[in-house]
């Protein structure tokens, strides 16, 4: 009986050890989901390159598909503050035609030190630029119209120089509709940004 208990105890100990090793190996192999680098990424002299994707969807009842994508590049003038340019690209496909939207909007972005953590940063952003669309009507559309916007966002760093972003913004433009009308509203966007360190001399 004593021998059986000793054997059972030995087998249980071996199983626990093997399970712990397998668990450690799984943890080492799983994809990286966070990185404590947020303060290094937003330093003076660094660059930011990436894109936001917003308003992607399909309405099956009206056969209406929409996609907006905004590639961007910026430069950190000082710690936490960047300026740059964003390209506005949009496409609506619907029964009977399609509309292509385009524009360029310089931006200024500030990462708040308050509430910052090693793995994430909150930021605010303002944009102002021009945009147009391929939409035409009987009165004729203006080639370009103004675009103004304010945004707030959250950047979560998933790797040394890569962050996923969620952005809520208010934009006003008359570029996508008839002359004399206005279009404004809230939109939610997701972005992927790459933070490139300054060159060392």
TrEMBL record:
Superkingdom of origin: Bacteria
Signal listed as a keyword: yes
Signal peptide start and end residues: 1-20
Keywords attached to this entry: Signal
Protein name: Outer membrane protein beta-barrel domain-containing protein
Organism in which the protein naturally occurs: Pontibacter cellulosilyticus
Taxonomic path: Bacteria, Pseudomonadati, Bacteroidota, Cytophagia, Cytophagales
């Amino acid at each position: 009986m004593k021998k059986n208990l000793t054997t059972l105890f030995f087998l249980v100990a071996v199983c626990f050890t093997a399970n712990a090793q397998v668990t450690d190996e799984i943890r080492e192999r799983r994809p990286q989901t966070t990185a404590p680098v947020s303060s290094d990424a937003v330093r003076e002299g660094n660059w930011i390159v990436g894109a936001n994707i917003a308003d992607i969807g399909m309405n099956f009842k009206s056969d209406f598909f929409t996609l907006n994508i905004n590639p961007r590049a910026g430069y950190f003038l000082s710690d936490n503050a960047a300026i740059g340019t964003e390209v506005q690209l949009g496409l609506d496909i619907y029964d009977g035609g399609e509309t292509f939207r385009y524009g360029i909007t310089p931006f200024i972005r500030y990462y708040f030190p308050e509430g910052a953590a090693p793995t994430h940063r909150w930021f605010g952003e303002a944009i102002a630029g021009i945009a147009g669309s391929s939409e035409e009507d009987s009165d004729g559309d203006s080639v370009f119209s103004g675009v103004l916007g304010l945004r707030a966002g959250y950047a979560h760093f998933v790797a040394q120089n890569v962050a996923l972003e969620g952005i809520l913004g208010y934009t006003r433009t008359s570029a996508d509709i008839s002359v004399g009308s206005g279009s404004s509203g809230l939109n939610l966007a997701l972005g992927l940004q790459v933070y490139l360190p300054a060159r060392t001399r």
